[in-house]
Write a structure and sequence with these properties.
Distance between the termini: 31 Å
Number of strands: 9
Number of domains: 1
CATH topology: TIM Barrel
Strand order of the largest sheet: 3-1-2-4-5-6-7-8-9
Strand content: 15-25%
Number of helices: 6
Radius of gyration: 16 Å
Helix content: 25-40%
Oligomer: single chain
CATH class: Alpha Beta
Largest sheet: 9 strands, mixed
Length: 213
Amino acid sequence: MARLRVTEIFCSLQGEARSAGRPTVFVRLTGCPLRCTWCDTAYAFSGGEWRDLDGILEQVAGFGVGHVTVTGGEPLAQADCRALLAALCDAGHAVSLETSGALDIADLDPRVTVVMDLKAPGSGEVERNRYANLALLRATDQVKFVLADRADYDWARGQIQEHDLAARCEVLVQPVWDALPPAELAQWVLEDRLPVRFQLQLHKLLWGDARGR
């Protein structure tokens, strides 16, 4: 039986990506091999509780919400994450995975929407990017750039162009909270006519909380 270390399971509004604003159940798995400078979920690096798959599915079902996001930490750092994703899809949920892109996204259940966070230089983890993942992204997936400054933006623009990302999937850009003024990033996007979706973290705007509640 699959077992996973879980930091928390809760229901909130999705704060990011294509489904922003939708009531969503979040399954936050424990552990992450990266240490991004701007990380807002460091509390998920350790601790957590070992849970079996049936218990997780039962708790998720109890919220009565169709959308589920598996996040972290870095969910794919746990071997049984793939089994969890497939089981959530089998249970009829619309499932998304928030992943850093540092770990292999091959062989995921095709029903899962991947939201892959490609790490910009300002994160301190740009060397961890697994660029082979980009070729695995589908039209239903999304790639996200969290940007701390103009240098990060220029790097992201280069990646979008070099890998023709906008033709492969939806591209998201967002400013690091309290680091890059949102209006500045929005202006750069408009000046370059960059083919992306600009976003802010809705949960922080509403509650000022990384957990969205």
